[in-house]
């Protein structure tokens, strides 16, 4: 899933509250810092988390196991 899709999925998930691009950049930077990865890898991780958040609970548990 590309960054644009991740952005809109996040917006959908949090209702009408708009997540601005700056907030996204900050979030990616924080994830990169915490995980010790590059910002582009952090963007992919975030996209994966957004994708997982859309799945039913059993699917998330299955993937984590």
What is the strand and helix layout of this fold?
Layout: H1 3-13, H2 21-35, H3 39-53, H4 57-64
Query: Portion of residues in helices?
Result: over 70%
State the shape: globular
Assembly status: single chain
Tally of domains: 1
Task: Output the number of helix runs.
Answer: 4
Radius of gyration, in Å, reads 12 Å
Give the N-terminus to C-terminus distance in angstroms.
22 Å
Whole-number average pLDDT?
A: 68
Sequence of secondary-structure elements? HHHH
Q: List the uncertain runs.
A: none
Structural class: mainly alpha
How much of the sequence is in beta strands?
Answer: under 5%
Count all strands and give the number.
Answer: 0
Q: Could you describe the largest sheet, including whether it forms a barrel?
A: none
Organism: Dankookia rubra
Protein name: Integrase
Overall description:
This protein has 65 residues and is mainly α. It has one domain (3-64). The protein is built from 4 helices and no strands. It has helices spanning 3-13, 21-35, 39-53, 57-64. Helix 1 packs across helix 3 (39-53) and helix 2 crosses helix 3 (39-53). It is globular and about 30 Å long. The two termini are 22 Å apart. The model has no long low-confidence stretch (mean pLDDT 68). It comes from Dankookia rubra. This is Integrase.
Short description:
This protein has 65 residues and is mainly α.
Main attributes?
about 60 residues, mainly alpha, 4 helices, globular
